[in-house]
Amino acid sequence: MLGPSQEASGLAIDVESLKSERERLKTTLRELETEQRKLEAELKALRQREIQTKRTIEALTTLIDINDAREEKKDAP
Predict the structure, then answer these.
(1) CB distance 2 to 10 below 8 Å
(2) Which residues, 6+ apart, have CB-to-CB distance to 2 below 8 Å?
């Protein structure tokens, strides 16, 4: 059997190990959150590029439609 001082010593080591692991996990979590924010910013930028590209396509389609309508008027008798 372990005496009271041996049990306390063993328990102290376990608690210190737990505290160390907790701190390590907190650090890992902060790193993950930082990476997540970075990825979210990149995703937002990509979405903005997507929206801008779609708007450009729409504008070009409109210009093509206008041009086609003018061509049809010229060809009409």
Answers:
(1) yes
(2) 10
The candidate with the shortest Cα–Cα distance to 63, out of 75, 55, 52, 74, is 55
Q: 8-29 burial string, b = 16+ CB within 10 Å, else e?
A: eeeeeeeeeeeeeeeeeeeeee
Residues 31-75 have pLDDT tens digits of 999 999 999 999 999 999 999 999 999 999 999 999 999 988 888
Give the distance from CA 51 to its chain's centroid.
18
CA distance 21 to 23: 5
- Over residues 9-31, the pLDDT tens digits come to 666 678 999 999 999 999 999 99
Q: Which two tokens stand for residue 70?
A: 């003018």
Residues 6+ apart with CB under 8 A from 10: 2
